Amino acid sequence: MSQDTNGSTTTAAPGSGGAGNGDALENLLHEGRQFPPSAEFAADAVVSAGEYAEANTDRPAFWARQARELLSWDKDFSQALDWSNPPFAKWFVGGEVNAAYNALDRHVENGIGDRVAIHFEGEPGDTRSYTYAELAEEVRKAANAFEALGVAKGDRVAVYLPMIPEAVITMLACARIGAVHSVVFGGFSADALRSRIDDAEAKLVVTADGTYRRGKPSPLKPAVDEALTKPGHTVSNVVVVKRNGEDVNWVEGRDHWWEDTVSAASGEHTAVGHDSEHPLFILYTSGTTGKPKGILHTTGGYLTQTAYTHKAVFDLHPETDVFWCTADVGWVTGHSYVAYAPLVNGATQVMYEGTPDSPHQGRWWEIVEKYKVSILYTAPTAIRTFMKWGRDIPGKYDLSSIRVLGSVGEPINPEAWMWYREVIGANAGKNGETKEHPAPIVDTWWQTETGAQMIAPLPGVTATKPGSAQVPLPGIAIDVVDEAGESVPDGHGGYLVVREPWPSMLRGIWGDPERFKDTYWSRFEAMYFAGDGAKKDEDGDIWLLGRVDDVMNVSGHRLSTTEIESALVSHPSVAEAAVVGAADETTGQAVVAFVILRGDAPNNGDATVLELRNHVGKEIGPIAKPKHILVVPELPKTRSGKIMRRLLKDVAEGREVGDATTLSDPTIMSQIAESLRK
Ligand code: WTA
Fold first, then answer.
1. Does any ligand 1 atom lie closer than 6 A to the CB of residue 100?
2. Hey, which end of the chain has fewer CB within 10 Å, N or C?
3. pLDDT digits 0-9 by tens, 263-277
């Protein structure tokens, strides 16, 4: 780890050996650049290097201090951490805290009610700003409205909304009354929504008529209607936000317009403290098996670590900064760094509804210039897309307000990192001026399961390296271990693990404690297994190398190979399917499916492929549609019947096929190659 702040650049490169993923790793091996913080930045940074020493002396005590400094507790806790029954942790035992009060009302009481909490920018160009006082009032109204619809503490609420302020209002209103929200990304299908509603037994669904996508209305309500057609669900009410004004189907007695229920409700509502371990939300994510897992987060620990990391990693100065996290609230990044942390920290943030290219490819930079965004948090896939569009586009805007840049969701390749620094971070105005000290980049590694950032440089402390998330955050115990669970020396690779419990860790998988233990805690004794490969370089800095399991990462979205295979096999024409994530220049990975059709099913070429793609779209959602579907006569299997995805990946990535000697039929790969040539 390098905490060098004196301006020198060293040339340490990550060592060799251990887990790796081909070419990308080779490039990383030659990456030796380092960028220490400027003296000015370091002098004004909210967190200094001393924090590591304090945190690592007594982790629970460090987190207890953060919990008390960053949050207002209705009842103080008596114990920082109870780890007497691992892997089931309890943080801030006996404490009581209300998330919505902490995000909103207390700021009003503390005299910053007039500060803008959210600058909302709709895709068609409509805008709305909410001050803390206004947003607090909306949340109290929503809390009253949901209670009037019979939602009580502990009940589950499914949220199927676009990126509009009502999404945040709904989440915080649930938190206020102790109801557990389960946000389902708007890109998921009716079937996926229904299975999530059923798994959590949601009582209420909050949705919108629709949103806008690339200038056109894009519906949401029809998916809710379709999800609820089959009987046997637990939903008694649906609240509908009017967003794009398109006609919607209406079920009397079940459906209620937001403006008739929420907007009409009283703005008086008293928040009570909930137990620190009270469930805050469930968020479904893909794992290695077909069924998505409902990741459960609770209140006190989650709020503490999201707020701490938001402050420390982005060097947040809430009085002056304008924060913009581009993630959708349907993903964990949108939970932790849109709905919760920025508000708990009293910051001003931007929320944007649409795509980066609507109505033109400069839309994001126009937004940065307009609101003087100072901290931008986005994903490598977006950065690579902007690289493709060209540096002239951001060059037309004044991005000089930017002082910290964040990255999340997948490993960021050094070229994308350098582009981000030079084109966005160094922009000092639209006339091509550049900054002497470009904005530092913080690459943040974390997961739905970890709840908050776990590995990241601190921008005023760490000399950053293009492509590396580098250092575990203060109070976080990360390691890289070999197959046997032994810590690897610097210069080697292996599996990423967390050695000690952390405040925002998942508390379980909804309704399935065994699966929680099996998935995360059984691979290595007494360690959390993240599912990522990683490497320590000669300085001990960590480089993430991608998933080591059957989880793919497409544009920073997690997709399971098994889940897509199950969707394909559920089509009457498909006998068998194997899915791999193939390297893709823009999206990181792309879904490539190999299918065997049933004997009696016709192969109509492109029409069959189109039908199968749409079928996956219907079963899971448009984001899961394979980029390529290849119809093949056979799949490569070992003698024990396991599909050798490694060989299919070679085909999908256009490489020479690797060692195929363990196949039950060694001629399969040439048969596949032959069938693809046709
Ligand atoms: C990957 C998103 C490398 C990783 C917050 C992890 C990353 C999965 C990074 C979690 C990063 C996330 N560098 N890889 N900075 N951030 N990942 O649950 O494989 O949607 O396991 O959470 O994304 O994805 P999830």
1. no
2. C
3. 999 999 999 999 999
